[in-house]
Amino acid sequence: MCKQCNYETLLSAARLDATDNRLRVLEVIGNNSYPLSAADIFKTLDRTYRINRVTVYRILDLLVEHELVDRISTGGRAFYYGMAPNAHHHPHPHFYCKRCGQMDCLTPDSLNVDSEALWKTFPGRIDKVEVRVDGICKNCMK
Amino acid sequence: MCKQCNYETLLSAARLDATDNRLRVLEVIGNNSYPLSAADIFKTLDRTYRINRVTVYRILDLLVEHELVDRISTGGRAFYYGMAPNAHHHPHPHFYCKRCGQMDCLTPDSLNVDSEALWKTFPGRIDKVEVRVDGICKNCMK
DNA sequence: GGCTTCAATGCAATAAATTTGCATCAAAGT
DNA sequence: ACTTTGATGCAAATTTATTGCATTGAAGCC
CB B133 to CB A126 under 8 A? Predict the structure, then answer.
């Protein structure tokens, strides 16, 4: 849940028109406390507003490309989407439960990743460092 | 390239029959210096021995399940496969080039991940911590 | 030897997630 | 009004992986 982000502002800062659909996709992602799949986002929106699946994919691509949204890989087949790092969202690792598919955010410092040396020495461009913990969540352990 | 692993031994240690196909899949993965996609492995094998795509998938599932092989997610759609951590293969991060799809292994200490606290406190089961660096590789930068 | 069993493999069809191509529509210029 | 342009929708295609069922060949048993 993000009370601090203003989605219209985020969009206009990225020089993107704040269409209803874009705002809604961004809201669904930003107001959720864990990352969601494209299918989740589509289902949530379509229940209330009627939107096409492809439109959701296209908006997600756009938001990822403009770095408002982060495309996160899972141990499964689909990508998940969460807010990209910004003033209110620091990079953090995720936990993926291979039983139920739920993805949770871990606190930024639950794992300590020191990537400084790599950034200095890597002979190419680094865009992001993704850290994912795979396993079985508390609920599924029962 | 792994000179130290004996693939028959690995298979039998996991109580799996060392069929030709299983050995070949394991060899292709183990003898390669970076992870490969199922399609890569299939193409490599099919050129020489004639094998079915589905057989490759099934063997990969089996090897992953028995922890001989590691299924690695990419910034793309397909999974990649590399040797699972063992005496000769330490866990390490990977670099994924989003332009050409090439995945490289980074040295185990190129990024320093301290996950000790998490293992202690996490209320569920942790199977692995995957660290992936995304960006554009040296070659694609030109 | 002949019979049964069973795991490994192959082949065809299907599924899941995403992408592409093309049509439409509405707002912004001119 | 006329044209352009970007956003969206719809249907079809693509990519990657999985399922169901048939075949085969070796291992055990009478």
Answer: yes
Nearest CA to CA, how far is B70 from chain A (Å)?
Answer: 11
For residues A7-21, average pLDDT: 94
Interface test with B, best of A61, A73, A81 (most B CBs within 10 A): A73
Domain A7-141: give its CATH code: 1.10.10.10
**Cα(A123)–Cα(A6) distance, rounded to whole angstroms?**
37
> Cα(first)–Cα(last) distance of chain B, in Å?
27
Contact assignment for B130 to A126 by CB distance below 8 Å: no
Task: Say yes or no for a CB contact (<8 Å) between A130 and B125.
Answer: no
- Length of chain B measured in residues: 142
Per-residue pLDDT of chain B (142 residues; tens, 9 = 90+): 677 889 999 999 999 999 999 999 999 999 999 999 999 999 999 999 999 999 999 999 999 999 999 999 998 999 999 999 999 899 999 999 988 899 999 998 888 888 888 989 999 999 999 999 999 999 999 8
Residue B64 tokens, joined: 């992953």
| Chain segment A106-115, per-residue pLDDT in tens | 998 888 888 8
Give the mutation candidate from A80, A134, A138, A141 for the B interface (greatest B CB count, under 10 A): A134
Could you tell me if B120 lies within 8 Å of chain A, comparing CB atoms?
no
CB-based contacts of B102, cutoff 8 Å, min separation 6: B34, B96, B137, B139
Residues found in chain A: 142
